[in-house]
Amino acid sequence: MKRSEPVELMNMCVLRRGSKVLVQDRTDPNWPGVAFPGGHVEKGESFTDAVIREVQEETGLIISSPRLCGIKQFQTDADERYIVLLFKTDRFSGTLRSSEEGEMVWVERDALDAYPLVEDFRELLSVFDRDDLTEFQYERAPGTSADWRVRLY
Is the pTM here over 0.70, yes or no? Predict the structure, then answer.
């Protein structure tokens, strides 16, 4: 049995300022809606350096002390494992700006449901919010090749 597999590594970060969170109204038609900033981990880059770089590229803010709080994962149709490392922090400096990825907006945490959220946002938010959850996994429903279900651990 092969013990390695192709992997694509990503990150995502919740920035908190009091009762508000920073969200991005995404411009990508393949994954539209409001999401948290993040992006790819480059080859050889540490996960922490990657999330700091991605947040700065998309928001203009420089985060510090990002805390790894969970993982999102699924198997792609090309049989690669897609892993998103989930971070959060309330420490940052700089001036907020938007990017080509989308408009950045501070939103009251309790008002998120009023926004057009990306698919699976609520389940993902559970992993960010709850200390008893660390993993979000899409898995194919038993006996199917196309139906997916979300499992939270």
Answer: yes
